[in-house]
Amino acid sequence: MLLHDAIEEFKRYLTITNKSQETICSYSSDLSSFESFMENKYNGPAYLDEIQPMDIEDYLFYLKNKNLQASTRSRNLYTLRSFWNFSYKNKLCNSNVTVAIEPIKVQRKERTYLSSDEVSELIDAIEHPLIKLVVQTLFYTGMRISECLNLKLDNVDLDNNIIHIINGKGSKDRDIPISKRLAPLLKEYLLNERPDVNSDYFFATRKTGRLSAPYVNRVLDDTAKSLGWKKHVSAHILRHSFASSLIKHGVNLVYVQKLLGHSNLKVTSIYTHANMEDLNNSVNLL
């Protein structure tokens, strides 16, 4: 079978198993890049059963020479493993060539985050009222930007103070309590500020009916620069800040995991930061 045809079968499998659009796009991009590499390497279409472990290693070396970070190369390898697992399981090929590939070591780095004071300063400096509210919502809920902007009116239950995330990352649903600080802001927006438009998105605009993630991130970046900050600020940084703030205030890591929608506690543990003041207070307990 041609590599191209096997990739199309895999993409179809991702669709019928209700993988998120982001996952499908990411896998498709990675596999398209690999297919182009193989076609250039052998000057023609590649066949799945002709691909050897050395081809995978050559591709990973090619990515490294493009100065891609270890985390990006590791993600590409994960995509290839998923593709070959599917292909071998469904008898599209005779062997799984990715089994022989050593994993790529990725250095764990602490996530960049904002302190509560920095978040307040950032919010005060945002001039766009709707994006200001979105930023407050992101910080008080820990939602991903895609989850936040995809909220529909009936996903936000202001009577019971619960946000229902439908089909989040990994096609998972979860509920997030609305904090006492956020609830009145959302109620005020819904009653007096939301434009009367034909859109069921909660965060609606008069012109297009909804906000876009790139626009929100651009406003955040411009606002951070106007404050003279050197750190890069994005919507995802607010998710980091939500988690880090909860942990700093002693919230159990398992609760933080549930709020973030992580399937693995190890992922949540990245948000456990310790500054010099925390370390100093710790040693002085002795």
- Give, in spatial order, the strands making up the sheet with the most strands: 1-2-3
Number of domains: 2
Low-confidence stretches: none
- Total strands: 3
| Rg for CA atoms | 22 Å
Shape descriptor: globular
CATH topology of the largest domain: hpI Integrase, Chain A
> Proportion of β residues?
under 5%
Biggest sheet features: 3 strands, antiparallel
* Mean pLDDT metric: 88
Terminal residue distance: 66 Å
Alpha plus pi helix count: 13
Helix and strand composition category: mainly alpha
Oligomeric composition of the shown chains: single chain
Quick rundown:
By secondary structure, this protein is mainly alpha-helical. It is built from 13 helices and 3 strands.
Please write out the topology:
Elements: H1 3-16, H2 21-42, H3 53-65, H4 70-89, H5 116-125, H6 129-141, H7 145-149, E1 156-157, E2 162-165, E3 174-177, H8 183-193, H9 213-226, H10 235-248, H11 253-260, H12 265-268, H13 276-283
Antiparallel strand pairs: 1-2, 2-3
Helix pairs in contact: 1-2, 3-4, 6-10
Characterise the protein shown here:
The chain is mainly alpha-helical. The protein folds into two domains: 3-100, DNA polymerase, domain 1, CATH 1.10.150.130; 116-281, Intergrase catalytic core (hpI Integrase, Chain A). Helices cover 55% and strands 3% of the residues. The protein has helices at 3-16, 21-42, 53-65, 70-89, 116-125, 129-141, 145-149, 183-193, 213-226, 235-248, 253-260, 265-268, 276-283; strands spanning 156-157, 162-165, 174-177. It has a three-stranded antiparallel beta sheet with strand order 1-2-3, with no helix packed on it. β1 (156-157) and β2 form a beta hairpin. α1 runs antiparallel to α2 and α6 (129-141) packs across α10 (235-248). The longest helix is centred in the first third of the chain and has 22 residues, at 21-42. It is globular. The chain starts with a helix and ends with a helix.
